[in-house]
Amino acid sequence: xxxxxxxxxxxxxxxxxxxxxxxxxxxxxxxxxxxxxxxxxxxxxxxxxxxxxxxxxxxxxxxxxxxxxxxxxxxxxxxxxxxxxxxxxxxxxxxxxxxxxxxxxxxxxxxxxxxxxxxxxxxxxxxxxxxxxxxxxxxxxxxxxxxxxxxxxxxxxxxxxxxxxxxxxxxxxxxxxxxxxxxxxxxxxxxxxxxxxxxxxxxxxxxxxxxxxxxxxxxxxxxxxxxxxxxxxxxxxxxxxxxxxxxxxxxxxxxxxxxxxxxxxxxxxxxxxxxxxxxxxxxxxxxxxxxxxxxxxxxxxxxxxxxxxxxxxxxxxxxxxxxxxxxxxxxxxxxxxxxxxxxxxxxxx
Length: 349
Ligand code: AMP
Ligand code: TRP
Prior knowledge:
Elements: H1 5-8, E1 22-28, H2 36-48, E2 53-59, H3 61-64, H4 71-87, E3 95-99, H5 105-113, H6 119-123, H7 126-132, H8 141-155, E4 161-163, H9 169-186, E5 194-196, H10 231-240, H11 256-269, H12 273-279, H13 285-311, H14 314-343
Parallel strand pairs: 1-2, 2-3, 4-5
Helix pairs in contact: 4-13, 5-8, 8-9, 10-13, 11-12, 11-13
The chain binds adenosine monophosphate and tryptophan (TRP).
Residues 28-29, 37-38, 41-42, 164-165, 167-168, 202-204, 213-214, 216 line the site of adenosine monophosphate (AMP).
């Protein structure tokens, strides 16, 4: 339970007690479709460690503004994502779940962290390079400043571990640099967070192009398996997934498509890559894909059923998010009082 969350923001002394549970924080954007990559790369790991840690999970709607979403669609996507997270097993009695903009301290801290972040380090982020390519000066400032807001999300709650997919590694490195610089300039204020990136499932690739990661924002529906896909759609997408030349079910650098499919199979069935290879020895691509489709459908169906039920109960979703925001706000405000003091801003007290 995260019942003592507010105290933790100031009470770092309890880090040494036997009962110390790791503070875990992660965020996910309410944009596009919640997909298998999100689940295997991030959310399933959040659920797996929920009992051993004090977990805080955030639906980062401010980050999603980067894609200029339609306001009505954004609201739908917040409900959709909250339902997907709860259906995936994020028990609201065991963690905090809230929407980023419901806790204004995130935006405030983002501004303050501008003071210890350099233009050059933002411009060097891979995500900035990718998303600004071809846009020249017309690129939105949200794309550049995105990692500062992410750093604010993380360090506001004395986070120790940040479970994410591999694509977020660089943003967490920048967060660590920001912490080092802030603490050196203003005194020990923020806890140093660490990325928690699993080897299994950390990078699920597109089904139609194994050189590209499976992404919510892809315009090509065949590239991802969404939690909104019916069993038949899932079967069709897997049947049509690209494969590599050859005829054995084996992974390897020269077989990116098969490696990805084997990873998905392994992650969902709890088998290692060699175990999956052995399981399919002497079998054909078609047999493998058929069995893979059934593993995916069997894993997703119970989550999808729960997702549909939850999506229909907006008052419940809203209540969970409100409670999460209230408790997160208490912790955030305690931290912000310290930060404002350290930086010398505000009227004399
Ligand atoms: P996003 O969809 O960008 O909001 O990402 C939410 C979480 O899912 C982050 O921790 C990402 O690292 C993770 N994630 C997104 N896409 C993938 C993918 N294709 N494979 C593994 N993890 C992913
Ligand atoms: N940038 C992350 C992504 O696109 C989402 C995110 C925002 C996040 N704030 C965070 C992840 C804080 C972990 C911690 O996936």
